[in-house]
Amino acid sequence: IRHDEPWDSEWNSQFHDLCPACFKDPRLELAPSEATIGVVVGENTIFRDPGPAKRMPNRTGGFIGGTRMGEVSDGTSNTILTVECKPVCWMDPSGDPTWEEVKKRPPVSRNGMTKIGMADGSVQVIRDSIDQNIWKCLLERNDGEPVSVPFD
User: Of 13, 51, 67, 119, whose CB has the highest number of CB atoms within 10 Å?
Assistant: First the structure.
């Protein structure tokens, strides 16, 4: 993958059908290029955008800002790393859900539930009717709000 080229350049397009299994829900029938698990990108999330001055030249997406473990002051078991999302090409940077898109509710619901990956590596299931304030606290790595996590 050439990171100095757009994700859909002629060169990078040859990798579209090589989506890593960690970005796919194995229960779903998806095109080889499609991912249904994404990271949430936003200022107080694990994957924050450091702004134009600190981005890699010719940014094409992917991991854009480093977060140290010490910056996850709410604790890794209380901080969301990944969420289920609508199918999108795994290399398309617009496919990662943004903070603004998911701050009110989980982006995808299956039978009233959604799977989330926590920063401690665990995978949890929550109801899509989760209290909006609890959901927001789980998305942020450093809000300092105590959370009683309603995992199912």
Answer: 119
Digit-coded pLDDT (tens) for 19-46 = 999 999 888 899 999 999 988 888 888 8
Residues 6 or more apart whose Cβ sits within 8 Å of residue 76: 69, 118, 119, 120, 121
Give the tens place of pLDDT for each residue, 55-112. 444 344 444 557 888 999 999 999 999 998 889 899 887 777 776 777 777 777 788 8
pTM (2 decimals)? Answer: 0.80
Domain spans in the chain, listed from the N-terminal domain onward:
10-139
- For the record, the structure tokens of 17 come out as 């059908």
